[in-house]
Fold this protein.
Amino acid sequence: SAVISQKPSRDICQRGTSLTIQCQVDSQVTMMFWYRQQPGQSLTLIATANQGSEATYESGFVIDKFPISRPNLTFSTLTVSNMSPEDSSIYLCSGIAGGPGDTQYFGPGTRLTVL
Amino acid sequence: GEDVEQSLFLSVREGDSSVINCTYTDSSSTYLYWYKQEPGAGLQLLTYIFSNMDMKQDQRLTVLLNKKDKHLSLRIADTQTGDSAIYFCAERGPDSSYKLIFGSGTRLLVRP
């Protein structure tokens, strides 16, 4: 299994600003992902964070709005840029540590409120 | 296309069994997962089942998979108040992306 931590756990931000969320895994993971969970909704995949190269974005998400870095196998960041109230969500990172089921473990999430 | 559906709400009495249902559309899904989300928390992996299995049991949890009907269920025996949470099913497709498609989540309320 993998233990995943995120910083910050929550933040309140002004529109037009940017926030960078950090994700740290306690062991090497093969793949890392970033998800968004809008209020009362399910999880939607934003992108796959690739080590040392550009992230792979899902339809509806773009690098200019959600730049992602993954400098090594245990750390990734997601930036929410030029925020608007519609960006208010929980942002979760996840990782696959290998083993049976290719199970994906999730961090506790970052609760973002944009005023 | 990929779509995963769940009923939104389930209420049971403490000590009873809970059954949470999920339907999916991608017949080529390789793994299906159940996650639990408590208020203000992230997702906790409960269990998973490989698509060539029809049942998996893990302590109080039983997963049933009907691949013909693309139906997945999670049964929680002797439900406790601590089981109150949102339960998400998720499917993983056959490609190498490993991405998960989540259902809308079922909110389970356990009454004392």
